[in-house]
Amino acid sequence: MALPAFDLALALSPQGLRAVSELLVVAPAAALSLIPVWGWRRVGRIRLALELALALALDVLAALVVAGLSWPTNYLLVPACGVLFLAYCNAFDLSLAQKATVFLTMMALGAFITDSPYLGTGGVVTQWALWVVALALLVRPLHTAVPSLIGSPAVGPRFWTLAWVLPCAVVVVLVLAIPDDLTTLFYRDVGPNLMLITLTVLALFLLTYALMYRLIRKADEALAASEDERRATMQRLMEEHLSERIETARRARHDVRQHDLVVLGYLEEGDLEGLRAYLSERDVMSGTAPLSVCEDVAVNSVAIYYWDRALEAGAKEVTMELEVPRLSARREGNVTVVLGNLLENAVDSLGQLGGGVLRVRVRMVQGGTIFIAIDNSCSPNTVVPQPGQVGGVPSTKHFGMGLGMQSVITTAEASGGTAEFACEGGMFYASVMLCS
After folding, report:
1. Packing angle of the helix pair 403-414, 190-254 (nearest 10 deg)
2. How far is CA 69 from CA 8, 183, 250, in A?
């Protein structure tokens, strides 16, 4: 069967222009899909606008061609979405599944609004009016709720791998709901039944997202409470550990006189071998960290605690250079959060390897900026957070993303600083800058 000839007059007729207007309602859907992911943008605003404008121009051209060939226009929604999605994917530092989920969710709403004229709710003016209503209702949740879900530590990659299926299925159902022969909508009960089905699909779709949001927020709250409890426990352990170390040092000082007498006895007898054996066993400070490595008490307790834990894990070399004066409560909290989480991961890595190296350098420069650099031995399969990666790295302690790395990145960025990580030659390198 021969394909229909292209009719330019038909394409530019009111019928053809109507097809273009109906298709352009995907533009607000694309605009809404930008709001929740704007913080992960990797291209400039002008470039992003030009790419999306080019994609829309191609969609308009396709609509004119379809109208000129007298083809059904409702099937244009899917390819139009595809062209826009290509521009969308290039603009943001998120996984493909995350971008597809957000984009298809907005396109599902667009599919419903595109179907509205066929369901007896008006024409193109009604479509744009519905978009104005949707924009007013959705701007706030898209700006706050959706980004919090994207960065949620309770949501792992497996969730996003499947999340896009729901909005994709809704788009397909709503597009296929409109028949090729629009006259069938005027048959008895066809239009009302189709309206009922469409509204039911939309209601279930929105209800599913509401329940999903509530469950994820509950999981976030549970993880946050667990993390707060863990930090409080760790702080108590660090304080108790430092107190024990101080008490040990006091007892050692009481034994110094007896210790000197024993050493003097070995020297008087000329028993150097015995003296060497005694010193190797008797040195009470052997294999332990010093009692003080910096002036700030809280930072010092964190460093000493993890120094001893690293030695217990079998570390062959531990060095800590902390040039940190007494800090304000806010800055002290930031440093201890970053240092504690990085050292926790480092010590865990040393424990898995049965030993290794740990080097810590903390320095505050003129102006108040604090630089933290930690190098530690690690396994070859260590996962390194990438720039723009959402939620840190997968946790080995619970489902979802690691809270420790996420806390480090969040704390650094909140201060106006940066957090960078690398893994090379069996060593993990963490470099964090905390601005004043």
Report:
1. 90
2. 9, 19, 93
Strands 370-377, 427-434: parallel, antiparallel or unpaired by DSSP? antiparallel
* Cα gap 159→97, rounded to integer Å: 9
DSSP letter assigned to residue 312: H
Query: What span, in angstroms and rounded, lies between the C-alpha atoms of 173 and 77?
Result: 12
pLDDT digits (tens, 9 = 90+) for 46-59: 888 888 888 888 87
User: How far apart are alpha carbons 429 and 422 in whole angstroms?
Assistant: 5
Among 235, 233, 371, 373, residue whose Cα is nearest residue 302: 235
For residues 394 and 158, is the Cβ–Cβ distance under 8 A? no
**Residue-wise burial string across 56-91, b where 16 or more C-beta atoms lie within 10 A, e elsewhere:** bebbbebbbebbbeeeebbebbeebbebbbebbeeb
Residues 350-362 have a mean pLDDT of 92
Q: Are 87 and 55 in contact (CB under 8 A)?
A: yes
The CA distance from 142 to 353, in Å, is: 44
Tell me the angle at which helices 96-115 and 77-89 cross, rounded to the nearest 10 degrees: 150
- Average pLDDT, stretch 394-405? 54
User: How many CB atoms are located within 10 Å of the residue 243 CB?
Assistant: 11
Which among 321, 413, 325 is positioned nearest to 375, based on CA atoms?
Answer: 321
Under 8 Å CB-to-CB from 352, ≥6 apart: which residues?
Answer: 379
Whether residue 22 has pLDDT greater than 70 = no
pLDDT of residue 370: 93
- How far is residue 252's CA from residue 290's CA, in Å, rounded to a whole number? 13
Concatenating the DSSP letter of every residue in 387-413 gives TT-TT-SB-SSSSSB-HHHHHHHHHHH
Burial status of residue 109 (CB atoms within 10 A of its CB: 0-12, 13-18, 19 or more): buried
Task: Kindly report the pTM of this predicted structure.
Answer: 0.58
Alpha carbon 433 to its chain centroid, in Å, reads 19
Asked if pLDDT for residue 309 goes beyond 80, the answer is yes
Length in residues, the chain: 436
Q: How far apart are CA 26 and CA 87, in angstroms?
A: 14
CA-based nearest residue to 431, from 353, 369, 368, 382: 369
State both tokens at 50.
């030009």
